[in-house]
From TrEMBL:
Organism, as annotated: Butyrivibrio fibrisolvens DSM 3071
GO cellular component: cytosol
Family from the record: Belongs to the Nudix hydrolase family.
Protein name according to UniProt: ADP-ribose pyrophosphatase
Cofactors (names): Mg(2+)
Molecular function GO labels: pyrophosphatase activity
Taxonomic lineage from the root: Bacteria, Bacillati, Bacillota, Clostridia, Lachnospirales
InterPro entries to which the protein is assigned, alphabetical: Nudix_hydrolase (IPR020476), NUDIX_hydrolase-like_dom_sf (IPR015797), NUDIX_hydrolase_CS (IPR020084), NUDIX_hydrolase_dom (IPR000086)
All copies of domain Nudix hydrolase, residue ranges: 67-194
Amino acid sequence: MNTKNITIDHKDIDSCNIDFKMSDKAIKLPERLSRTTIYESDYVSLYTDRVKLPSGQIIEKYHQIHYSREGVSIVIFNDKDEILMIREMRYSAGRLEWEIPAGGVEKGEAIEDAARREVMEETGCTVKDLKFLCSQTPSNGMTDQVMHVFGARVESEGTIKDVDEVADKVWMPVSEVKELLKNNETKDGIAILAILFALEFYER
């Protein structure tokens, strides 16, 4: 194979540098022109918005779902570096799903308190070393729902309180949890993101 030495002048590289960063202020966002309420409750509301896109195109019926409460999800570890997985009975999906404790924040409740409460209700456990990891919008194309992700360590164990929603709980080695995710054995996006984030950023 013939080879050829190529000399590159760093000045040439510097002169070709392009700043691809664009200020958020320079980006024109879609604009809501009007809103019609289709359904409204203390928990969820459904709206039809009339929206003007940056191109000028008008969307006459842009459906939006609003949840009045934010949510929390918690990845819990024990001293064996296992993760507490729960078997959720999901009516909408029509199946059992591998998940982690998660739920809504009550009015006036701090998200940390909501996290501890949800863990108690769904697993009977108390936790320590509770740490906020991130916030996510699971489906921001159609809803403004926000979920706050926490990592924690188990402090004490008890029995499941919410027997109408949680069928079982299992301490699963991290290696098995990774295999579960790799094999798509859970389709719960909230759990998938939270677990991956906790494995990377929660010090345990």
